TrEMBL record:
Coiled-coil boundaries: none
Topological type in the membrane: Single-pass type I membrane protein
Subcellular location: Cell membrane
Keyword vocabulary terms for this entry: Cell membrane, Disulfide bond, Glycoprotein, Immunoglobulin domain, Membrane, Receptor, Signal, Transmembrane, Transmembrane helix
Segment forming the signal sequence: 1-23
Protein name as annotated: Ig-like domain-containing protein
Protein backbone atom coordinates (compact mmCIF):
# COMPACT_ATOMS: atom_id res chain seq x y z
CA UNK A 1 0.00 0.00 0.00
CA UNK A 2 1.37 3.47 -0.92
CA UNK A 3 2.39 5.86 1.84
CA UNK A 4 -0.59 8.12 1.08
CA UNK A 5 -2.94 5.17 1.61
CA UNK A 6 -1.41 4.43 5.01
CA UNK A 7 -1.81 8.06 6.06
CA UNK A 8 -5.47 8.06 4.99
CA UNK A 9 -6.14 4.85 6.95
CA UNK A 10 -4.39 6.29 9.99
CA UNK A 11 -6.49 9.48 9.88
CA UNK A 12 -9.67 7.43 9.60
CA UNK A 13 -8.70 5.44 12.68
CA UNK A 14 -7.99 8.65 14.60
CA UNK A 15 -11.36 10.03 13.62
CA UNK A 16 -13.09 6.86 14.79
CA UNK A 17 -11.12 6.79 18.06
CA UNK A 18 -13.20 9.47 19.85
CA UNK A 19 -16.34 7.55 18.94
CA UNK A 20 -14.88 4.42 20.51
CA UNK A 21 -13.37 6.15 23.53
CA UNK A 22 -15.92 8.78 24.25
CA UNK A 23 -19.17 7.52 22.78
CA UNK A 24 -19.77 5.61 26.02
CA UNK A 25 -18.52 6.61 29.44
CA UNK A 26 -15.61 4.49 30.54
CA UNK A 27 -14.23 4.14 34.06
CA UNK A 28 -10.59 4.44 35.00
CA UNK A 29 -9.24 2.93 38.22
CA UNK A 30 -6.91 5.22 40.14
CA UNK A 31 -4.86 4.24 43.18
CA UNK A 32 -5.16 6.62 46.12
CA UNK A 33 -2.11 8.87 46.39
CA UNK A 34 -0.87 7.97 42.89
CA UNK A 35 -1.14 9.92 39.58
CA UNK A 36 -3.69 8.90 36.95
CA UNK A 37 -4.62 10.00 33.46
CA UNK A 38 -8.25 10.23 32.24
CA UNK A 39 -7.97 9.50 28.49
CA UNK A 40 -9.42 11.77 25.84
CA UNK A 41 -8.11 11.78 22.24
CA UNK A 42 -9.68 14.30 19.83
CA UNK A 43 -7.65 14.54 16.60
CA UNK A 44 -10.56 16.37 14.89
CA UNK A 45 -9.75 19.41 17.02
CA UNK A 46 -6.26 19.75 15.51
CA UNK A 47 -7.72 21.91 12.69
CA UNK A 48 -9.54 24.24 15.09
CA UNK A 49 -8.44 27.87 15.44
CA UNK A 50 -8.54 29.61 18.81
CA UNK A 51 -9.44 26.31 20.45
CA UNK A 52 -10.90 26.49 23.94
CA UNK A 53 -11.75 23.46 26.10
CA UNK A 54 -13.10 22.93 29.60
CA UNK A 55 -12.73 19.88 31.86
CA UNK A 56 -15.47 19.48 34.46
CA UNK A 57 -15.76 17.33 37.55
CA UNK A 58 -19.50 16.94 37.77
CA UNK A 59 -20.65 20.56 37.39
CA UNK A 60 -17.41 22.05 38.72
CA UNK A 61 -14.84 23.41 36.26
CA UNK A 62 -11.41 22.05 37.16
CA UNK A 63 -9.44 23.05 34.04
CA UNK A 64 -9.83 25.59 31.25
CA UNK A 65 -7.40 25.90 28.30
CA UNK A 66 -7.16 28.16 25.25
CA UNK A 67 -4.87 27.61 22.25
CA UNK A 68 -4.67 30.79 20.19
CA UNK A 69 -3.85 31.08 16.50
CA UNK A 70 -0.44 32.60 17.24
CA UNK A 71 0.50 29.53 19.29
CA UNK A 72 0.01 31.12 22.70
CA UNK A 73 -1.57 28.85 25.31
CA UNK A 74 -3.54 29.98 28.33
CA UNK A 75 -4.50 27.50 31.03
CA UNK A 76 -6.19 27.72 34.40
CA UNK A 77 -6.79 24.75 36.64
CA UNK A 78 -7.52 23.59 40.12
CA UNK A 79 -4.48 22.12 41.83
CA UNK A 80 -3.63 18.52 40.86
CA UNK A 81 -5.11 18.84 37.32
CA UNK A 82 -3.35 19.45 33.98
CA UNK A 83 -3.30 18.45 30.30
CA UNK A 84 -0.34 17.43 28.11
CA UNK A 85 1.73 20.37 26.86
CA UNK A 86 1.51 19.16 23.24
CA UNK A 87 -2.28 18.60 23.31
CA UNK A 88 -2.96 20.95 20.37
CA UNK A 89 -0.37 19.10 18.26
CA UNK A 90 -1.09 15.48 19.24
CA UNK A 91 -4.82 15.61 19.89
CA UNK A 92 -4.25 14.12 23.35
CA UNK A 93 -6.45 16.18 25.70
CA UNK A 94 -6.35 13.67 28.57
CA UNK A 95 -6.89 15.07 32.05
CA UNK A 96 -3.98 14.30 34.34
CA UNK A 97 -4.46 14.06 38.10
CA UNK A 98 -1.23 14.30 40.07
CA UNK A 99 -2.64 12.55 43.15
CA UNK A 100 -5.87 10.59 43.45
CA UNK A 101 -8.04 11.05 46.55
CA UNK A 102 -10.39 8.38 47.89
CA UNK A 103 -13.21 10.94 47.92
CA UNK A 104 -13.11 11.08 44.10
CA UNK A 105 -14.50 7.56 43.81
CA UNK A 106 -17.31 7.27 41.21
CA UNK A 107 -16.71 10.83 40.03
CA UNK A 108 -17.80 11.86 36.53
CA UNK A 109 -15.38 13.97 34.45
CA UNK A 110 -16.29 15.49 31.08
CA UNK A 111 -14.59 17.62 28.42
CA UNK A 112 -16.46 20.16 26.31
CA UNK A 113 -15.35 22.63 23.64
CA UNK A 114 -16.33 26.24 24.17
CA UNK A 115 -16.74 28.98 21.58
CA UNK A 116 -17.79 32.55 22.36
CA UNK A 117 -18.72 31.59 25.88
CA UNK A 118 -21.04 28.81 24.67
CA UNK A 119 -20.39 25.13 25.38
CA UNK A 120 -20.85 22.34 22.92
CA UNK A 121 -21.88 18.82 23.78
CA UNK A 122 -19.51 16.55 25.72
CA UNK A 123 -16.60 15.41 23.62
CA UNK A 124 -15.21 13.05 26.28
CA UNK A 125 -16.75 11.52 29.38
CA UNK A 126 -14.74 9.49 31.90
CA UNK A 127 -15.67 7.93 35.23
CA UNK A 128 -12.99 7.74 37.94
CA UNK A 129 -12.96 4.80 40.35
CA UNK A 130 -10.54 4.85 43.27
CA UNK A 131 -8.99 2.08 45.36
CA UNK A 132 -6.17 1.52 47.85
CA UNK A 133 -4.43 -1.63 49.04
CA UNK A 134 -4.80 -2.86 52.61
CA UNK A 135 -1.87 -3.80 54.80
CA UNK A 136 -1.01 -7.46 55.38
CA UNK A 137 -3.30 -8.76 58.13
CA UNK A 138 -1.73 -8.78 61.58
CA UNK A 139 -2.89 -11.99 63.25
CA UNK A 140 -2.26 -12.49 66.97
CA UNK A 141 -3.33 -14.99 69.59
CA UNK A 142 -4.63 -13.62 72.88
CA UNK A 143 -5.12 -15.20 76.27
CA UNK A 144 -8.68 -16.39 76.83
CA UNK A 145 -10.38 -15.11 79.98
CA UNK A 146 -12.49 -18.26 80.25
CA UNK A 147 -9.56 -20.70 80.15
CA UNK A 148 -9.99 -24.29 79.07
CA UNK A 149 -9.29 -25.14 75.45
CA UNK A 150 -10.75 -21.88 74.18
CA UNK A 151 -8.47 -19.69 72.03
CA UNK A 152 -8.96 -16.04 71.04
CA UNK A 153 -7.44 -14.59 67.85
CA UNK A 154 -7.38 -10.98 66.65
CA UNK A 155 -6.81 -9.83 63.06
CA UNK A 156 -6.18 -6.24 61.89
CA UNK A 157 -5.62 -4.58 58.51
CA UNK A 158 -5.51 -0.87 57.65
CA UNK A 159 -5.20 1.88 55.05
CA UNK A 160 -7.35 0.46 52.24
CA UNK A 161 -10.27 1.51 50.08
CA UNK A 162 -13.11 0.70 49.67
CA UNK A 163 -14.28 -1.21 52.77
CA UNK A 164 -13.05 -4.82 52.46
CA UNK A 165 -14.53 -8.16 53.41
CA UNK A 166 -12.86 -10.13 56.22
CA UNK A 167 -13.37 -13.83 56.74
CA UNK A 168 -11.93 -16.64 58.89
CA UNK A 169 -11.05 -20.23 58.10
CA UNK A 170 -10.39 -22.94 60.69
CA UNK A 171 -7.92 -25.63 59.61
CA UNK A 172 -7.97 -24.08 56.10
CA UNK A 173 -11.45 -25.43 55.33
CA UNK A 174 -14.02 -24.83 58.08
CA UNK A 175 -16.03 -21.68 58.68
CA UNK A 176 -16.24 -20.41 62.28
CA UNK A 177 -19.33 -21.35 64.27
CA UNK A 178 -22.11 -18.72 64.54
CA UNK A 179 -21.37 -15.99 67.04
CA UNK A 180 -17.63 -16.74 67.14
CA UNK A 181 -16.59 -13.70 65.06
CA UNK A 182 -16.84 -9.99 65.83
CA UNK A 183 -15.75 -7.60 63.05
CA UNK A 184 -15.52 -3.79 63.10
CA UNK A 185 -14.81 -1.57 60.05
CA UNK A 186 -13.66 1.97 60.87
CA UNK A 187 -13.50 4.82 58.27
CA UNK A 188 -10.75 7.40 58.68
CA UNK A 189 -12.33 10.90 58.45
CA UNK A 190 -9.27 12.67 56.99
CA UNK A 191 -8.51 10.28 54.15
CA UNK A 192 -11.74 8.24 53.88
CA UNK A 193 -9.64 5.09 53.95
CA UNK A 194 -10.69 2.12 56.08
CA UNK A 195 -9.28 0.07 58.94
CA UNK A 196 -10.78 -3.31 59.78
CA UNK A 197 -10.38 -5.49 62.86
CA UNK A 198 -11.90 -8.82 63.85
CA UNK A 199 -11.84 -11.26 66.80
CA UNK A 200 -12.39 -15.00 66.66
CA UNK A 201 -13.13 -17.15 69.71
CA UNK A 202 -12.87 -20.87 69.02
CA UNK A 203 -11.85 -24.24 70.48
CA UNK A 204 -8.89 -25.57 68.53
CA UNK A 205 -7.87 -29.21 68.35
CA UNK A 206 -4.27 -30.31 68.70
CA UNK A 207 -2.25 -28.89 65.81
CA UNK A 208 -5.22 -26.88 64.51
CA UNK A 209 -4.88 -23.44 62.96
CA UNK A 210 -6.83 -20.39 61.85
CA UNK A 211 -6.49 -18.11 58.82
CA UNK A 212 -7.59 -14.48 58.53
CA UNK A 213 -8.47 -13.36 54.97
CA UNK A 214 -8.92 -9.73 53.82
CA UNK A 215 -10.33 -9.21 50.32
CA UNK A 216 -10.52 -6.04 48.20
CA UNK A 217 -12.57 -7.05 45.11
CA UNK A 218 -11.99 -3.71 43.40
CA UNK A 219 -8.26 -4.48 43.15
CA UNK A 220 -8.80 -8.22 42.92
CA UNK A 221 -6.58 -8.36 46.01
CA UNK A 222 -6.60 -11.13 48.65
CA UNK A 223 -4.36 -10.95 51.72
CA UNK A 224 -4.13 -13.61 54.42
CA UNK A 225 -2.27 -14.58 57.60
CA UNK A 226 -2.32 -17.90 59.47
CA UNK A 227 -1.65 -19.03 63.02
CA UNK A 228 -1.34 -22.59 64.27
CA UNK A 229 -2.01 -23.95 67.75
CA UNK A 230 0.42 -26.61 68.94
CA UNK A 231 -0.62 -28.64 72.02
CA UNK A 232 2.30 -30.39 73.68
CA UNK A 233 1.93 -34.04 74.64
CA UNK A 234 2.74 -35.49 78.08
CA UNK A 235 5.98 -36.96 76.71
CA UNK A 236 7.04 -33.53 75.44
CA UNK A 237 6.19 -31.94 78.78
CA UNK A 238 8.21 -34.57 80.70
CA UNK A 239 11.13 -34.18 78.30
CA UNK A 240 11.02 -30.41 78.77
CA UNK A 241 10.97 -30.77 82.57
CA UNK A 242 13.87 -33.27 82.47
CA UNK A 243 15.89 -30.89 80.31
CA UNK A 244 15.20 -28.07 82.75
CA UNK A 245 16.30 -30.20 85.73
CA UNK A 246 19.45 -31.32 83.92
CA UNK A 247 20.41 -27.76 82.97
CA UNK A 248 19.81 -26.57 86.54
CA UNK A 249 21.93 -29.40 88.01
CA UNK A 250 24.69 -28.71 85.49
CA UNK A 251 24.75 -25.05 86.48
CA UNK A 252 25.00 -26.02 90.18
CA UNK A 253 27.87 -28.44 89.53
CA UNK A 254 29.76 -25.88 87.47
CA UNK A 255 29.25 -23.28 90.20
CA UNK A 256 30.56 -25.63 92.91
CA UNK A 257 33.62 -26.51 90.81
CA UNK A 258 34.37 -22.83 90.26
CA UNK A 259 34.14 -22.15 94.02
CA UNK A 260 36.42 -25.10 94.78
CA UNK A 261 38.94 -23.88 92.24
CA UNK A 262 38.94 -20.39 93.72
CA UNK A 263 39.34 -21.78 97.28
CA UNK A 264 42.24 -24.03 96.22
CA UNK A 265 43.96 -21.14 94.50
CA UNK A 266 43.63 -19.04 97.66
CA UNK A 267 45.16 -21.94 99.69
CA UNK A 268 48.11 -22.17 97.28
CA UNK A 269 48.70 -18.44 97.54
CA UNK A 270 48.80 -18.63 101.32
CA UNK A 271 51.30 -21.51 101.26
CA UNK A 272 53.50 -19.60 98.83
CA UNK A 273 53.44 -16.49 101.03
CA UNK A 274 54.29 -18.54 104.14
CA UNK A 275 57.25 -20.19 102.41
CA UNK A 276 58.51 -16.86 101.18
CA UNK A 277 58.27 -15.38 104.67
CA UNK A 278 60.16 -18.33 106.21
CA UNK A 279 62.90 -18.06 103.60
CA UNK A 280 63.37 -14.36 104.33
CA UNK A 281 63.68 -15.13 108.05
CA UNK A 282 66.35 -17.77 107.38
CA UNK A 283 68.33 -15.30 105.29
CA UNK A 284 68.29 -12.66 108.04
CA UNK A 285 69.41 -15.15 110.71
CA UNK A 286 72.37 -16.35 108.59
CA UNK A 287 73.58 -12.76 108.20
CA UNK A 288 73.54 -12.24 111.96
CA UNK A 289 75.51 -15.44 112.56
CA UNK A 290 78.22 -14.43 110.08
CA UNK A 291 78.69 -10.90 111.43
CA UNK A 292 80.56 -11.73 114.83
CA UNK A 293 83.05 -13.98 113.00
CA UNK A 294 83.92 -11.17 110.63
CA UNK A 295 84.51 -8.75 113.55
CA UNK A 296 86.91 -11.23 115.25
CA UNK A 297 88.84 -11.70 112.00
CA UNK A 298 89.16 -7.92 111.60
CA UNK A 299 90.39 -7.57 115.22
CA UNK A 300 93.01 -10.32 114.75
CA UNK A 301 94.16 -8.68 111.52
CA UNK A 302 94.58 -5.33 113.32
CA UNK A 303 96.57 -6.78 116.28
CA UNK A 304 99.94 -7.06 114.40
CA UNK A 305 99.58 -3.51 113.21
CA UNK A 306 99.04 -2.29 116.79
CA UNK A 307 102.03 -4.28 118.05
CA UNK A 308 104.23 -2.76 115.35
CA UNK A 309 103.08 0.71 116.37
CA UNK A 310 103.90 -0.01 120.00
CA UNK A 311 107.44 -1.28 119.12
CA UNK A 312 108.05 1.85 117.07
CA UNK A 313 107.02 4.00 120.03
CA UNK A 314 109.32 2.07 122.36
CA UNK A 315 112.27 2.50 120.02
CA UNK A 316 111.63 6.23 119.85
CA UNK A 317 111.54 6.41 123.66
CA UNK A 318 114.80 4.45 123.90
CA UNK A 319 116.58 6.77 121.48
CA UNK A 320 115.69 9.95 123.37
CA UNK A 321 118.23 9.47 126.37
CA UNK A 322 121.06 8.83 123.90
CA UNK A 323 120.44 12.06 122.11
CA UNK A 324 120.27 13.95 125.40
CA UNK A 325 123.59 12.49 126.56
CA UNK A 326 125.30 13.46 123.37
CA UNK A 327 124.14 16.99 123.84
Amino acid sequence: MPAAGWRTLFLLLLLLLPVCCCGEEECVLGLVGRPVSLPCFLPQLLTSVNLSIVWRRGEEVVLWSVWREDGEVEEWSVSRFSTPEDASLSGNFSLQLHSVAASENNTHFSLVETSGGNSSSELCSVCLQTAASFSTPLLQREESKHGGGEAVFSCESSGGFPAPTLSWLINNKEDPPPGAVTTITTPLPDTQLFNISSRLTVNLSKGGGVTCIVENPKLNETLSSSSYSVTRSAVQIRASEAMWIFSTALCVVVGVMVLMGVAYQIHLDRIHKRKKHDFQKLQSRGYKRRSPDKEEEEEEAMKPEEEEEEEKEKKKEAMKPEKESEV
